[in-house]
Design brief:
Structural class of chain A: alpha+beta
Strand order of the largest sheet of chain B: 1-3-2
Largest interface: A-B, 52 and 57 residues
Helix content of chain A: 25-40%
Oligomer: heterodimer
Strand content of chain A: 35-45%
Number of strands of chain B: 3
Order of helices and strands of chain B: HHHEHHEEH
Order of helices and strands of chain A: HEHHEEEEEEHH
Distance between the termini of chain A: 32 Å
Strand content of chain B: 5-15%
Number of helices of chain B: 6
Helix content of chain B: 40-55%
Number of helices of chain A: 5
Strand order of the largest sheet of chain A: 1-7-6-5-4-3-2
Distance between the termini of chain B: 50 Å
Shape of chain A: globular
Chain lengths: ~160, ~130
Amino acid sequence: MTQEATTVVRRRIVVEAPLERAFTAFTERFGDFKPPEHNLLAVEIAETVFEPKAGGHIYDRGVDGSECRWARVLAYEPPDRVVFSWDIDPQWQIETEPENTSEVEVRFVAETPQRTRVELEHRNIDRHGPGWQAVADGVGNDAGWPLYLARFAALFASGD
Amino acid sequence: MARLWTAALRADGLDVQISVSPDLPFVGTYQAGDALGALGDPTRRAIVERLAERPRAVGELADELPVSRPAVSQHLKVLKSAGLVSERADGTRRIYRLNPAGVAALRDQLETFWNRALAGYQDVVEEPEEESS
């Protein structure tokens, strides 16, 4: 196994939708498909906002008005490409040091006028390096991995 | 704990290497090392970046970086005590690599996230078009 294999997540999906619609759905409706158990706020998320410009943010807004900016939009090139930072550490807390953040690039490629290939690459995962210690620490207490895994298990158990 | 982890992976249809085994043996390798401090040094960060590409011997790192071989060894010692890199012997050389346990655990977490997100995305983008303005 190469080192890169452990530091990059690549996913590819083909959707039955035109290029523009595929891009728009990804950016404008991110909150509709983001796994709901990944919530950095203390309250329920009212909406997830993807600011459509480089220099913007992706942020969750809670039902109480609180906000959590968890990504910086690094490139916004409709309808072909978007790149954003991943400012979330392994403990699923906001990472404030940009050098310790990873990066997600999403490319949209028209296969036919009605079909779009979406290629997602989440890279430089090892930049979250300082958080590895946190992951290790978290494993041993209820606030870390066990809680995270329990959430997942509960999700699947509910027949999702 | 072990059952939860296995169930999560299977239910999500993932084909990933389970690098965090149920008894989490890698926890013990972290000692009291301070990973945050270890990566605060630019040379150590450069070393980690190179090891992220592929495992390397001390000599290779010294050739690529503007520091001496003893200095590289010293930095590697710090990174190792912080649980960030691991080493193995290859003849008389010592080969260093990023400690895969920590990164792999995070990678698995993110892989699960994106599997779920993209499945949801496909549902959203393919749903029948409602009245568009």
